[in-house]
Amino acid sequence: MGSMSNFDQQQGSIPNSSSFDRLLDLRSSLSSVKRVPSASNLRSRSSSMGSENGTPKKSDPKIVRAAAGYVLEDVPHVTDYIKGLPTYPNPLQDNPAYSVVKQYFVNEDDTVACQIVVHKASPRGTHFRRAGPRQKVYFESDEVHACIVTCGGLCPGLNTVIREIVCGLYHMYGVTRILGIEGGYKGFYARNTIPLTPKSVNDIHKRGGTVLSTSRGGHDTSKIVDSIQDRGINQVYIIGGDGTQKGASVIFEEIQRRGLKVAVAGIPKTIDNDIAVIDKSFGFDTAVEEAQRAINAAHVEAESVENGIGVVKLMGRYSGFIAMYATLASRDVDCCLIPESPFYLEGKGGLLEFVEKRLKESGHMVIVVAEGAGQELMAESIRTMHNEDASGNKLLLDVGLWLSQKIKEHLTKKQKVLNLKYIDPTYMIRAVPSNASDNVYSTLLAHSAIHGAMAGYTGFTVGPVNGRHAYIPFHRITETQNKVVITDRMWARLLSSTNQPSFLSQVDVEDAKKEEPPAQFLQGDDKKRCSEESVSNNCSKLSSSSSQKSTGQKSA
Ligand SMILES: Nc1ncnc2c1ncn2[C@@H]1O[C@H](COP(=O)(O)OP(=O)(O)OP(=O)(O)O)[C@@H](O)[C@H]1O
Ligand SMILES: O=P(O)(O)OC[C@H]1O[C@](O)(CO)[C@@H](O)[C@@H]1O
Ligand SMILES: [Mg+2]
């Protein structure tokens, strides 16, 4: 096994040095020499990393390789593009609450493995930098001017993350200047800002929504970075889903291009749980729990009448995690439909045949459908306009209504008695405050983000990977989406619990298998195919698959 001190840097924006440790030493030694001008003074300074025409140039991934197939996909650091920054002792060392912890600061070399199911001969594989407080920080407490913004749809826990960023910065690092940006990205240049203090955010975690309000669309990179620069903000905390993280990534690129000492930290948010790499997103557990109430109601209604059918539509634009977990948790669901698993209505093995069969067997049934399911099927029968929201997300047709209508038509044709109740709790499950476990999880996310920014890391999203919080480069989060893998065990568990047909043809199964992580990853005996390259390239797909296995089962 290779050790971290034997790193070879192969590409990326790390300055030439043969050892990662030496790079860290270099950072510290440079730090005592020169102090850089403040962010506002750097306004017109052009960085060597920027392109000549002023368009943000995407920085290369920071990849560090070591023995036995060890790969570190590192996150950027402000010292990558500003040399000679001073460091300061972490104020936490004098904090009575934290100073008693035996090893409170994480080791600089600590990393978190992306894949933890391995074989004897498996390469060590891809890792991310472990999140947590560092012995040295790159910001003095009174130098920090932080801001927080929430973007995209609502999600339980948003207020908890806001609260914990404010309280964490204040109580752990003595930071007092924290601004809330109102109304999402466009708030940077078109709305007011709100000063945030531990007092003003004290109770907000008990409320749903976001006290900063949110929006879709309106991402104008240069206006946003102008606003950051003009206000002298040097830590930007961005809470949002996949679209938001893409926006955060281009903000980081532009900040780097302008050579600003500004840390950009993303906190992943989505109740759909569709963010790749991380174990699960905050608010997801709360959403699943809340969905139980709708499913219970549908079940009570359905079982109380002759041929009762309850149809419940849940959120999940591209990923059916909420529907899948709510179904598995409830045990009252007879059929769960998700975007990842195509289904059909008519004929042998179709949904309508199954509905008839289940009504005959039990006299009632409950169908849970994720909002993104059956969209192609519906488009075949309804003439539709292709509409998008302000962020460019596809606007969906109401599959719950459509399905209810199709079932009614079918059973009426067969002159069957039918009592169908359609329940659409979609916005109710995301507007509630977060439950206890999401509250704790949100707190850890906020703290990890703060520690990372204070330590000078930037251009990262924070989140648990196999249970340990890590700093993940933006591109890892944005290049792919987490989806239910229908050839995986969790979906099989669901099919066996509902006893519904899989609706899949042989061709569908073959197609789904093509989406699966490549088998060679776990076949340790073929060293060539298990190259570091393939490990690194396949990490996000594998994580998507392994994360959905672990989602809802692991705590942060
Ligand atoms: N590719 C992109 N580049 C820059 N900004 C983007 C990009 N995609 C989305 N954004 C911006 O990110 C913000 C949020 O995006 P979006 O509405 O897609 O929600 P989201 O963050 O994906 O959250 P969710 O889908 O979970 O509600 C919007 O202001 C949008 O303009
Ligand atoms: O109506 P809005 O605010 O666009 O949000 C709806 C979308 O937001 C999500 O909840 C993701 O945040 C999706 O499941 C859903 O399609
Ligand atoms: Mg999204």
How would you describe this protein?
Pfam families: PFK. Pathway: Carbohydrate degradation; glycolysis; D-glyceraldehyde 3-phosphate and glycerone phosphate from D-glucose: step 3/4. With about 550 residues, the protein is of the alpha/beta class. About 35% of the residues lie in helices and about 15% in strands. The chain has 17 helices and 18 strands. It has helices spanning about 20-30, 95-100, 160-175, 185-190, 220-230, 240-260, 285-305, 320-330, 350-360, 375-380, 400-415, 425-430, 435-455, 475-480, 490-500, 505-515, 530-550; strands at about 10, 60-65, 70-75, 90, 110-115, 125-130, 135, 145-150, 180, 195, 235-240, 265-270, 310-315, 335, 365-370, 420-425, 460-465, 470-475. Strands 1, 2, 3, 5, 6, 8, 9, 10, 11, 12, 17 and 18 form a 12-stranded mixed β-sheet that branches. The chain has a 4-stranded parallel β-sheet with strand order 14-15-13-16, sandwiched between helices. The chain has a two-stranded antiparallel sheet with strand order 4-7. Strand 14 (about 335), helix 9 (about 350-360) and strand 15 (about 365-370) form a beta-alpha-beta unit. The protein is elongated and about 80 Å long. The two termini are about 30 Å apart. Bound molecules: adenosine-5'-triphosphate, 6-O-phosphono-beta-D-fructofuranose and magnesium ion.
